[in-house]
Amino acid sequence: MVKRIRGVAFSTNVSPQIVTRIFYAARGLFNKFIPDVHIFTDSRAGGLSAGCGVSVVAETTTGCLISADATVSYPNVDEMSEQSEKPEIMSPEDLGEQVASMLLEEVAQGGVVDSTHQGLLFMLCALCPPDVSKVRVGQLTPRAIESLRNIKEFLDVKFIIKPDPNSNTVTLKCVGAGVKNLARKIS
Questions:
Q1: Which fold has domain 2-109?
Q2: What is the per-residue pLDDT for 89?
């Protein structure tokens, strides 16, 4: 269960209205499911590139943080030649709805992290002290599977993988490699 959604819609070198349009599109989809939605806006001027984006994070009742984000970059007028076609640029409303849908899909998959951060979670489990780590994630992504292969090859840590057909999640267990920070001073 999600208890709150927070985020930021940002832009640089474009109209501040674009950020507001992203914000309303994303919040409009979220408000159908949960009332506690706050998406902050940030518009900046300056720099060489123009674009906008949004990043949102859902916090569950168990304290898990699940995120989604997307950006749109606008080409400079100097880079576009007269002969080339104008690139099709996603509207701010479509961007807001896309990110909101991405976050809702991540939440529906279940697990303690979103699919983008599965590999990082597995690496942290593998590096921890030689104790059993158990985590539940949604469907394994190809990047997560490659991370598991690399962990087995480099750290010789094997994960026991058990799919749960009731919740469409996967439970992974391992015994950490016990890697220590030798540069850390012991007090």
A1: Dihydrodipicolinate Reductase; domain 2 (3.30.360)
A2: 80
Tokens 């506690």 — which residue? 36
**Percent helix, percent strand, percent coil in the chain, to nearest 5:** 30, 30, 35
Secondary structure of residue 131 in the 3-state scheme: coil
What is d(CA 51, CA 30) in angstroms, rounded to the nearest whole number?
23
DSSP string, 92-108: HHHHHHHHHHHHHHHHH
What residue segments make up the domains of the chain, in order of their start? 2-109, 117-175
Strand order in the sheet with 65-74: 37-44, 2-12, 50-60, 65-74
pLDDT digits over 14-31, tens only?
Answer: 989 999 999 999 999 999
How far is it, in rounded angstroms, from Cα 109 to Cα 17? 33
